[in-house]
Amino acid sequence: MVQMHAAINAIGYVAGVLTTFGSVPQIIRALRTKSTKDLSYTSLVVIDTGAITWTIYGILLRNGPLIVWDIITFVMYSTLIALKYKYDKQERLLCDNIQLSTTPI
Prior knowledge:
Blueprint: H1 2-20, H2 24-33, H3 41-61, H4 64-102
Helix pairs in contact: 1-4, 2-4, 3-4
């Protein structure tokens, strides 16, 4: 029974690694391009909310893989939300400045 439980947890950790780190390429791209215009706030917030909900579920079940990976997922998607806020704000300011500089006096 103990070996079966360990095997089940191992599957949970592998699944967690694969799904959690799926956001890494998007974070790297956002940092390199300084753009998140193609990302949806709604999608990011829904995924982040799901991750925190899964974390609570994992805590209630005392399930280590759920707790660990969903906390990491929450941090990763919170990072994407922060980058989206930062880069969208910078883009709006840049567009406002361009519009002001091209407005005839």
